[in-house]
Write a structure and sequence with these properties.
The chain has about 260 residues and is an alpha/beta fold. The protein is built from nine helices and 14 strands. Strand 1 (about 1-5) and strand 2 (about 15-20) form a beta hairpin. One zinc ion (ZN) binds next to helix 2.
Length: about 260
């Protein structure tokens, strides 16, 4: 099992999980052209994707998903609430193979098991996902205002984690955003700040952890160094051990064994 990010941040997110010859893309916030060129960096083509799972309707997650899915006949999985909110992206629903996800029920796409879980975020019915091949678990959490005991339960015992480190609270307060936007981003339905993310990490069973990648970093209100240092402190590891899925390059393949 391995995973890679095509890019992460408010300008677009997409992650690929691979088990044997099955590959799922989680979110697609890039244009078709951009997605194809970013997939090529990972030696993949759209036809290699068995499915696209969409976490919620925000542009940076859903903006490019349906054009890609329609063009290359890739099935899509999403919650009913998300579907209701993305109809503007879907010119002709009949061109798409849409599968409705129950946010508490696991489903499989060929060799990959996907366990969705609901999260507090300012979208209609947002989910995040834990991926598994039956032996290993990759937990992904971005776009969440506050960690919850349920999130802790879902992310405990993972071998790899992709964890939102959206902002540094002080940088956000002092930064260029308008007051309403600061309130939204820092609020319970916004995005996770570095220390909240570190606090969540400290409550997980990390005994099997092989990879941790910080994701969805704000370009204006965070730095990779601050995110890395917050997470490294919890794990007692070198800062270099913490990966960063950045906006431009994402992160290269990481194998889970
Ligand atoms: Zn987002
Ligand atoms: Zn969002």
């Amino acid at each position: 099992m391995r995973f890679a990010s095509l890019g992460s941040g408010s300008a677009g997110n997409a992650l690929v999980v691979e088990v044997n010859h099955t590959r799922i893309m989680l979110d697609c916030g890039f244009s078709v052209k951009e997605t194809v060129s970013r997939l090529a960096r990972l030696n993949l083509a759209p036809s290699d994707l068995a499915g696209i799972v969409i976490t919620h309707e925000h542009d940076d997650h859903a903006g490019g998903a349906f054009k890609l899915a329609a063009k290359y006949a890739i099935p899509v999985w999403l919650t009913y609430g998300t579907l209701k909110m993305v109809t503007r992206y879907i010119p002709n629903q009949h061109d798409l193979q849409l599968n409705i996800v129950d946010s508490h029920s696991a489903f499989t796409v060929a060799d990959i098991e996907v366990q969705p879980y609901p999260v507090p975020h300012d979208a209609r019915e947002p989910i995040q996902c834990v991926f598994s091949d039956g032996n290993h678990k990759l937990g992904v959490l971005t776009d969440v205002g506050r960690a919850t005991p349920y999130i802790e339960e879902k992310l405990s015992g993972c071998k790899a984690l992709v964890l939102e480190c959206n902002h540094d609270a002080r940088m956000l307060q002092a930064g260029p955003y308008s007051w309403p936007l600061k309130k939204r981003v820092g609020g319970d339905l916004g995005h996770l700040e570095n220390l909240d993310s570190a606090n969540l990490l400290s409550k997980l069973d990390n005994s099997k952890l092989q990879h941790i990648v910080a994701a969805h970093l704000s370009a204006k209100n965070n730095t990779p160094q601050l995110a890395k240092s917050a997470l490294a402190k919890v794990l007692g590891c070198e800062m270099d051990w913490i990966g960063i899925a950045d906006q431009l390059l994402g992160i290269d393949w990481r194998a889970i064994s």
